[in-house]
Amino acid sequence: MRLTIEDVLNYEIMQNARIITGRAAANERTIQWISVIEMPVENFVRKNEVVLTTGIGCSNNVDGFKKFVQDIIDSEASALMVALGRYIFDIPKEVIELAELHKFMIISIPWEIRFASIIEEVMKEINDIQYKEREKSEKVQQELLKLILKETDLNHISNFIQKQIGCSIIITDRSGLIQENGSHSVNFIEKWKNYVLRGILPSRKDTSELTRDPMFQKFQMIEVENQTILQLPVLQVLGDPQGYLFVILPSGTSADEFLSQYRVNVLEHSATTIALWLSRKNAIEETKMRLRSDFVLELAKGGFVSCEQANTRAKLLGYNIKLPFVCILGFPENLKVLFRKQHQEDHSFEQWLDSMILYIEEEIFYAAQSTKREVMMTYQGEQLLIFLEIPSENKMENAINFLNLVERRLGNLLPEVVLSWGIGNYNEGFKGFTDSYQNANVALNIGRRKKGAGCRMMYEDTRVERVLLTLAQNEEMKEVIMSTIEPLIQYDDQRNMDLIDTLSAYNQFKGNVSQTARSLNLHRQSLLYRLRKIESLTGLSVIEPDDLFLLDLSIKTWKMGVSDKITEEG
User: Fold this and answer.
1) Which DSSP category does 454 fall into?
2) CA-based angle 560:563:565, to the nearest 5?
3) Residue 272: which of 217, 232, 213, 219 has the closest Cα?
4) Residues near 247 by Cβ (< 8 Å), separated by ≥ 6?
5) Three-state helix/strand/coil letters over 69-129
6) Residue 127 exposed, middle or buried by CB count within 10 Å (0-12, 13-18, 19+)
7) Best CA proximity match to 177, nearest among 162, 158, 190
8) Cα 345 to Cα 349: distance, rounded to the nearest angstrom
9) Within 13 Å of residue 34, how many CA atoms lie on the same side as its CB?
10) Mapping DSSP to helix (H, G, I), strand (E, B) and coil, where does residue 239 land?
11) What is the pLDDT of residue 182?
12) Where are the beta strands (DSSP E) in 136-272?
């Protein structure tokens, strides 16, 4: 339901009006406002507004009148009605050519017609249309409230809204994660995740591009792959978005064409309804997630005094801890770097991090469902803490296959994210959860020190490193290690000769000088010089087995950090 220029021209009062330019657009030009404007225009004219003017100040001033008309055109007004007979007697040729160029409507009316009469007729019809649309949208509002009171799921609410506005919508949380997956294909959901992770959606702009009309200013317009999407915030009581309502416009439809008063009203009512639904859902989900997260952390840290206490809590949360579980720890290595690379300063790292962790957790849950395994998980202290159910046979092989599936999927969704993993051993009983967590922590830290970011280390493969760490806790052993290796460290710092890596390579090739020199890209004589320097600095021989063993042991322990840190974290 809309009012057009053609409708107005059919009024009895307008029977002597004459279309000067833009006749073909009479049935297309929508009217939402009407006003009387004289020079200057400035920002007083709104989009879809009919402007009435006497042209005062423009008589004998063609350039001034042309500038006036250009300003009206730039304001995206629907038409200009000029009263002829006092200040302007004929529309200048230059003005007609300008209007025709922009396909803009200029209508002449006799001086005798009162502007007030035209405004009265137009406003009466605009108010009548608005009343009917408001009445219609209020019925929709009542239906939406009924759906909320019936605790209807979000898919049904979404379908109802889509029927009212005639196009597809997406409902997300504040980070852009889709909340109703019922009507969307898997391919569409994956593409949407990609837009969110690239920072395209949701838009974080403070102002709308649809600013000419106050009715549209809550909407952001986003262009994605030749598709126009409108974004409407779903606000909390205090005004911060707790989610978004996205409207995917039909192909070839502009925002101006689509956003009628009725649709705007329906979408605003819908946003309020969705806010109520999300508030209830978030309260339930946050409580459930907090309880589950706290439980998993307590289980890992040994916070339960008895098996019965742990079992009771587990059953309340839907977990069965009598199944065999192994702990896996994941550490995202480069999220802050990715955020700085992909996003502007006006984005919140915390919100972006929440969405990233949600997506990673989603893929972990998917992998667990695909392999028909139970999983318990939390994100604490920059670590993903996972307890994965494993069958009694091939325990570690199952954990590896699980991580292979997770990384395959994450490689498609988040190809730039680097994750390091530590896998603990299976330990029986509810106390075994704590043991497995400690195993995984040690494996993760050793893996990151030994292999670097993106490593995957199993606890059972860290025996040598654990021996070294145990030895390093002995004060006398620390003193031996540091007295052996410190001269080499100091010399490397001063001369940048890299004697430590030279000795590591020499040991790796079992004392073969030629192979060692090739691996280090050194001349044989340069390598021999370095080996002699190592001997002179340490007082040990690289040929004597006992001396070489002490040097190798000291270097490996030093590379592990001779550190209390790893053991404390374990």
Assistant:
1) T
2) 115
3) 232
4) 165, 167, 168, 169, 229, 230, 231, 232, 258, 267
5) HHHHHHCCCCEEEEEECCCCCCCCHHHHHHHHHCCCEEEEEECCCCHHHHHHHHHHHHHHH
6) exposed
7) 190
8) 9
9) 22
10) coil
11) 66
12) 168-173, 220-224, 227-235, 241-248
Across 178-194, b (16+ Cβ under 10 Å) vs e yields bbbeeeeeeeeeeebbe
Stated as kind and residue range, the H or E segment containing 387 is strand 383-389
Q: How confident is the model at residue 45 (pLDDT cuts 50, 70, 90)?
A: very high
DSSP three-state, residue 187: helix
For residue 292, pLDDT beyond 90: yes
pLDDT at residue 570, rounded to an integer? 38
**Vertex 224: Cα angle to 222 and 230 (nearest 5):** 30
Q: Are 367 and 208 in contact (CB under 8 A)?
A: no
Q: What is the DSSP letter of 217?
A: T
pLDDT tens for each residue of 133-162:
889 999 999 999 999 999 899 999 999 999
| CB proximity list for 412: less than 8 A, separation 6 or greater | 190
Torsion of CA 453, 457, 461, 467, to 10 degrees: 60
Predicted pLDDT at 214 = 59
Locate 535 and state its tokens.
């001997």
Asked if residue 426 lies in contact with residue 323, where contact means CB atoms within 8 angstroms, the answer is no
What is the dihedral angle through the alpha carbons of 402, 407, 409, 411, rounded to the nearest 10 degrees? Answer: -170
Rounded to 5 degrees, φ, ψ at 367 are -60, -40
Residue 567 has pLDDT above 60, yes or no: no
3-state secondary structure 300-320: HHCCCCCHHHHHHHHHHCCCC
Q: Is the pLDDT of residue 566 over 90?
A: no
Per-residue model confidence (pLDDT) at position 238: 58
Q: How far is CA 143 from CA 153, 161, 203, 347, in A?
A: 14, 10, 30, 36
List Cβ neighbours of 248 (8 Å cut-off, separation of 6 or more).
Answer: 167, 168, 169, 170, 227, 228, 229
- 384 token code pair: 């993903």
Which residue is it, tokens 């042209």?
Answer: 55
Tell whether pTM > 0.90: no
pLDDT digits (tens, 9 = 90+) for 213-254: 556 778 999 988 888 999 999 986 556 788 899 999 998 888
Q: How confident is the model at residue 379 (pLDDT cuts 50, 70, 90)?
A: very high
> Residue 241 pairs with which residues in a beta bridge?
235
Residues 6+ apart with CB under 8 A from 79: 5, 22, 29, 50, 51, 104, 105, 106, 107
Q: Is 351 left (phi over 0), alpha (psi -120 to 50) or beta?
A: alpha
